[in-house]
Amino acid sequence: MHTEYFIVDKDNPDKEILGQAAELLKQGKLVAFPTETVYGLGANGLDEEAVATIFQAKGRPSDNPLILHIAHKEELSQLAAHIPNNAKVLMDAYWPGPLTIVVRRKAVVPDIVTGGLETVGVRLPDSIVARKLIELAGTPIAAPSANTSGRPSPTSAQAVLVDLEGKIDAVVDSGNCQIGVESTVVDCTTPVPTLLRPGGITLEMLIETLGEVEIDPILSGSFELAPRSPGMKYTHYAPEAPMVLFEGESSQVVNLLLQEINTALAEGKRVGALVSTETASRLPAAVIPSIYGRRENVDEIATNLYMALRSYDDHSVDVIYAEGISEEGLGLAVMNRLRKASGYRIVKG
């Protein structure tokens, strides 16, 4: 399969170029496109056969639900059997933006989108390119991250092509994504809204807006049979080499990480280290570093995280040691992704 490549400006996308990509979506084809979080792999979300090709291209488990992306708030009523008041509050506060709201679905939403659940996750992205593409396609777009299932999500069109060139019909390129981690997912069907996946809308922001938010226990690694949101049940975001995550107070984490690195080097292993700017200067010369940013700038870390993980695709290492960060604010989303990427191989400091 030939993968077409479209380039548009992120602030003022060419309608004719986007129209070509939208026409492919109307035909049941797969189109990767940018959002403010990561690049998504889009298909007509109401076309069961088109959605099935997402799972085929990604190698994605069929019980892993997808998010439907819409272009206008009003379109939620076409998909939701009921819109709870808490959902309306969140929509008013954070849409368009990196927030997915889980609601009871209407019959128009295919089972393949929801993994057989009676709920569906819906998002109104902040990206002008994404919203315009959805609008031109004239249908909600089902779109998980545009990568091979389990791999680090793509924050550039080039990263999409590394995984999916020749497997999908087109890529729309408008540059790198700004946020760098997937949307926050909140289940609004529960008596108290439940955080299913941390993201760009932080837990602190949700509590300030709603007053009370529960955290799903699966975020600590307690897997359930039926994932209620993308990224809950399966290993995600993982580089090719096994990764070990170090968590805890910063100085203790760094000391433990350096000890493990020196031990591994003494054993003759090729070692990668996913670390902060501050820790990078303390690494032995033999280590292959990937620097995600400064500890005090969690936005920078989130933006760089997946690119840093993907950088090890170009290096043959036996093991990667990763430095954890504080879970405040966006740090909760970063740590969630690092825990998943490590397969919960964690050393506590």
CATH architecture classification name of the largest domain: Alpha-Beta Complex
Largest sheet: 12 strands, mixed
Give the SSE string.
Answer: EHEEHEEHEHEHEHEEEHEEHEHEHEHE
CATH topology of the largest domain, by name, is DHBP synthase
Mean pLDDT: 94
Computed Rg: 20 Å
CATH superfamily of the largest domain: DHBP synthase
The chain-level structural class is: alpha/beta
| Overall outline | globular
CATH class category of the largest domain: Alpha Beta
Number of domains: 2
How much of the sequence lies in strands comes to 15-25%
Poorly predicted regions: none
H/I helix tally: 11
Which percent range fits the helix content?
25-40%
Tally of DSSP β-strands = 17
The termini sit apart by: 48 Å
Give structural notes.
The protein is an alpha/beta fold and 349 residues long. It has two domains: 4-220, DHBP synthase; 243-348, Rossmann fold. 31% of the residues lie in helices and 21% in strands. The longest helix has 17 residues, at 250-266. The N and C termini lie far apart (48 Å).
What's the gist of this structure?
The chain is α/β, with parallel strands linked by helices and 349 residues long. It has eleven helices and 17 strands.
Which short descriptors sum up this protein?
Rossmann fold; alpha/beta; twelve-stranded mixed β-sheet; five-stranded parallel β-sheet; single chain; 349 residues; DHBP synthase
